[in-house]
Amino acid sequence: MKRKINSIILNVVLILVGIITVYPFVWMVCSSFKQNSEIMALEQHLLPQVFTIDNYINMNERFNFLRFFANSLFVTIAITILVAYTSTICGFVLSKYKFKGRNLLFGFVLATMMIPWCVTIIPKYTMIQEFGWMDSYKALIIPAMFSGFGIFNMKQHIATLPDEILEAARIDGANEYYIFHRIVLPMAKNGIFSIAIFQFLWSWEDYLWPYLVINTKEKQLLAVGLKMFNGQYSTDYGALFAATAISIIPVLVIYLIFQKQFIAGIAASAVKG
Amino acid sequence: MKKKIVAMLLVVSLAVSGLVGCGSSTTTGTAGKTNVEVPTEPFGDTIKYDPVVEINDGKDITIELWEWGSDDLFQQVIDGYTAIHPNVTIKLVNNPWEDYWTKLPLSLNGQNGPAIFNVHNSYHENLINYMAPLEIPLEDLQADFTGVDAHVIDGEVYYIDYGMMTGTVYYNKEMWAAAGLTEEDIPKTWDEMREVAKKLTIKDGDRLIQAGLNFNDDFHQNYLLGLNYQLGTNLFLEDGRTPNVNSEAMKQVMQMLVDMYEVDGIGSKDFGEKGADSFGQGQSAMVIQWGHYYNTLQTTWSNIDFGVFEIPTFDENPYAYNRYNGESTFGVNKNAPADQQAVAQDFIKYFLANDEIQIEFNLAMSTFPAKKSLADNEKILENPSLAVLAEHIDRYIWPGSMPSTMETSLKKAGQDIFYNGVDIDTALNEAQENIIRDMENSTFTSVENLYAHAE
């Protein structure tokens, strides 16, 4: 009986927390079908009192939404794939190879996670200018190819894989390239998915760096486009909510597809093998 | 798994294209080129633009123009200019307001910054070292535009104002009529204003239902930093460096605000968190707001039937009516290649000489034209927030690009008075000390002495 009561209390608390977490999102989606005066009205209602799809229609007048969306998708997918690959290969080397300076190297990787982005952004900007990569996706993709968090996470994850399997493969004549691509990669699938989801989300949301390095409107990303709704004196909340509601669809879809692997990956990398 | 992924991707693409597809497929967000009538004769007042003169010897050239705000507005100028000079391509780069001020200085610091860029005078100190002086003779600028003298640095002008923005009173016409008020009741003095506000105030017992006047959240910008001029007192002492915010005039203005809420009861610090929003929400009958509010009412609060009148004064012949701030013309990047700078200079000349463009920019920003010949322009006077300024526009003062501490320190002083029970003298003295401390490293010098009617 006591267990049942505890379970009910826990579920009620979780439902409440869930509602509190989801409510702003639901409010935003509902508000994307309201007029600006209703969004700003003194008396607030969750559902639109006057339903309108004008925000979705007008949104395209402010910027080329589909173009920005496609640009974001391309850059995000490219970065995610590269980071997943580089993180896995670095994680493999750092966890399964024994060499002098390994821990120092790993410490260096960890240190990169502790430097605030605002410290590195100006030197990074100057370097990109010197390389002639301004207004090019090279400026977005290449500096993002390696992730300290990804390497750390994959090192932890790959460390849980039994060394015996790798030794057996070596005895059977497998080279390191084969071992990494045919054994480690499939076995680290859950960890890779969790890194991929994190990276996808971060890249999709990234605003300041793409804004700083991309000038051409046709190359601009969605996160930058969304910011255009914030004017000098006022914000077009309706159109902003409409654009944001659509922009989060890819993130939701990615999570829905990979949620099992994501949870398994996070759980596994939290346990040192 | 593969089927699941394919299905999900289909859902995404359908959802996105479906929702976005609601929009017009012809509008891509890129302002397209419009048909522009190409002038053949020189136009302008003193600053004349001759469309026959070639730029860059007729050779093809591309420059960038960076701005924030409306693409269409800027594209209109570009289309007009490139119709005259088809060899010039001007790439418009739109930016969000806030982060423009991070990206622009970074870019101007290098070799690849925009040749021409939109300027706001509040970022003067961040930008001035990257700007080339305008090549238009100073006397020509002075002949055509007001307020040029305030922008002269060592005999050079780097940008001027194309428009002047200031505060006016917005009133809710329905509430006005419901209180039995007519056009005849539009107040000219603060005493009349307070009486009108009392009539517009509705209470249920002690509970405020409708505020006659709401100045919450913006009293420092719209009252404290401006009404001092009505009493003949500047915001800075004669040296142009020492603030004067604990003056008798400032104390009188502050006392009036306190009395409006605490004696007259025409509003409350706890009623309508932001005056501007409260007016739009139909909670407050009057607010004093700057020109941009006219556009906000058109877009966000389109259901409010409003009227506008000029800010009241303490007596019939004030030293000045209020403070104004200028909307600035473009800046030219001094680090850009010489041929690009030449195009940028020519573009600015075209912008300043072209009356139609001046009118469009001023209407878009709800600013009163700085171009003297447009002061009585019909289109300008159709905008009620500009029409009410026309009679006394020469009686508004620009103190210069004041450091932000002027606003923040006075806001804190007001909050201390209203919320923390601090007396006016103490709060304003503290603000004065704060501002002096904050301005120690500032290069700002007031230009209040350049006011046309300075005593």
Q: Helix fraction of chain A?
A: over 70%
Protein structure class of chain A: mainly alpha
Identify the CATH architecture of the largest domain in chain B: 3-Layer(aba) Sandwich
The most extensive interface between chains reads: A-B, 46 and 50 residues
Question: Helices and strands of chain A, in N-to-C order?
Answer: HHHHHHHHHHHHHHH
Number of helices of chain A: 15
How would you describe this structure to a colleague?
The complex is a heterodimer of chains A (273) and B (455). By secondary structure, chain A is mostly helical. Chain A contains 15 helices and no strands. The longest helix of chain A has 32 residues, at 65-96. The two termini of chain A are 38 Å apart. The model of chain A has no long low-confidence stretch (mean pLDDT 90). Chain B is an alpha+beta fold and 455 residues long. Chain B has 2 domains: 35-160 and 329-353, D-Maltodextrin-Binding Protein, domain 2, CATH 3.40.190; 165-325 and 397-450, Periplasmic binding protein-like II (D-Maltodextrin-Binding Protein, domain 2, 3-Layer(aba) Sandwich). In chain B, the strands form 4 sheets. In chain B, strands 7, 10, 11, 12, 14 and 15 form a 6-stranded mixed β-sheet that branches. A 5-stranded mixed β-sheet of chain B has the order 2-1-3-13-4. A two-stranded antiparallel sheet of chain B has the order 5-6. In chain B, helix 17 (405-420) packs antiparallel against helix 18 (424-438). The longest helix of chain B has 20 residues, at 2-21. Mean pLDDT of chain B is 92; it is low at 20-32. At the A-B interface, helix 3, helix 4, helix 6, helix 12 and helix 15 of A face helix 1, strand 2, helix 3 and helix 12 of B.
